[in-house]
Amino acid sequence: MNDKYMAMVDVFFFIGVISYHKALSNPKTKRKSHQHLTREEYKDYRFKLMIPKLRMKKVMYTNHQMLSNQGDLLAIISDKKANWYVAKELADRIDESTIKLRFTAKGKPPDFTRAKKTNSCVCCGKDTDGYMRHFIVPKCYKQLFPMQFKSHLSHDIVILCPQCNREAGRRTDYRMKCLDRQFRDPKICQRIVDKNLVRVRSMASALLCHAEKMPPAVLAKYTREILDYYSETVLTDELLRNCAEEDKYGKINKDFVEHADLIYENLCQVGDGDCAITDFIKTWRKWFIQDMKPRHMPEGWSIDSNIRNTE
Predict the structure, then answer these.
(1) Of residues 286 and 212, which shows the higher confidence score?
(2) What is the pTM of this model?
């Protein structure tokens, strides 16, 4: 009895092995398996193609020294800004990388503006031609802020290599989705799906493509429902085309507020709007440090420093 049972097991095992190898040799199975296994590889390939288009065309930091009229270091600025001071006769050029102001500057600049910065990734430290500019506080929020929170402030713009920039983008998208779920009313959707529209759209497409093949009863039913939906009496080719071209995902909801506008409106409604924006900026800085764990941040960079321009 045991010998017969073991013989049956061997037969079924042999049949299973043959079936498995037949499945692997099937072109359809091969194609599906290949597409599934190389999906991430294809994403990486597409990302590498986009790097030349996304990378910075010029170096971000040229480290030009700006001295006070007494000779003290005030800030490290770009060549473009140094040339502007000289062209406006507000400063004299000392050498190729140094200018000296002709007037007395107000206030004491923070340490961050006086530190030299390297054109390398702040996370991994790679010095590569493909580095990209990353906004710690997403640009969609920053452009809505009052001028004192975005004018002449580069504290929240850092350099990342393509790989770190890709990961930072993923984590930023996740944080934004969490904020959206926190403040948005789940009942208000971006699009209003009209189930009747979806049905008559399908009927219009069928009439345009296969009207001559349809039974008279079906043809009459589709025609009647389309006319009833649009409150029309005559079914024209133009009406059919317009119906077939309706957005299948529904109509835009007029009450829907875009993500950045939604978040900014909520910030403005919290007591002192400026304090809420300040806390919001600090939160994004904390998230960047927490998520990306950068090891090469510029000297003087701090979560609490330089929130607004007081000039």
Answers:
(1) 286
(2) 0.68
